[in-house]
Design a protein that fits this description.
Distance between the termini: 28 Å
Shape: elongated
Number of helices: 3
Order of helices and strands: EEEHEEHEHEEEE
CATH superfamily of the largest domain: Anticodon-binding domain
CATH architecture of the largest domain: 3-Layer(aba) Sandwich
CATH class of the largest domain: Alpha Beta
CATH topology of the largest domain: Rossmann fold
Number of strands: 10
Helix content: 10-25%
Radius of gyration: 25 Å
Largest sheet: 5 strands, mixed
Strand order of the largest sheet: 6-5-7-8-9
Length: 182
């Protein structure tokens, strides 16, 4: 539906013609979510100015309003996809090194705030909605190195992992906005 509202005025020093505002029908309380207008001097090459029409969608405004109105929900409350466990404060540098390697590859990760039993660190991740817990390998009783492991705390699946190659499934990299009932 298109409605002409001749009393809308936006940025009079910038817009030089028609202006546009968009609302979601049925969710007018969200206000304008997309706006723009005509610009007589949108671009210039120094000798000639060029007009144009443009618009911008307020994505952060729209998403925050949709979240606060309960129309959508986030799949998790924090950006982290992985919590790297800390077995002891003495081994924290190993956990920090895993986190650094994962971050260098763009994986959102945090290190557990304190050395604690693994169950407590898994509960910490679960409370924050973080799907994976990384357990740095150690040294076995025979002195041989043990591999790192990562656990999907939703399924319980735990596998050997290398911070140089492991990555979460695509849908777990970042939180997503989904319909409130989903």
């Amino acid at each position: 539906m298109v409605v002409a509202d001749l009393k809308i005025a936006r940025g009079l020093d910038y817009y030089t013609g028609s202006v546009y505002e968009t609302v979601l029908v049925g969710h007018e309380q969200l206000g304008s979510i997309c706006s723009g207008g005509r610009y007589d001097t949108l671009a210039s090459d120094g000798a000639t100015t060029y007009p144009g029409v443009g618009l911008s969608i307020g994505v952060s405004r729209l998403v925050s309003r949709l979240l606060s109105a309960g129309l959508v929900r986030a799949t998790r409350s924090v950006p982290s996809a992985v919590v790297v466990a800390v077995t002891s404060e003495e081994t924290r540098p190993a956990s920090d090194a895993v986190a650094t390697a994962l971050r260098a590859r763009g994986i959102p990760v945090e290190v557990a705030p304190s050395a604690a039993k693994f169950g407590k660190q898994i509960r910490y991740a679960d409370r924050r909605g973080i799907p994976f817990v990384w357990f740095p390998g150690g040294t076995g009783e025979d002195g041989a190195p043990e591999p790192d492991q990562v656990k999907d705390i939703r399924s319980g699946e735990q596998v050997d992992a290398d911070p140089a190659t492991w990555e979460p499934p695509a849908e777990d990299w970042w939180p997503r906005a989904v319909p409130a009932g989903a």
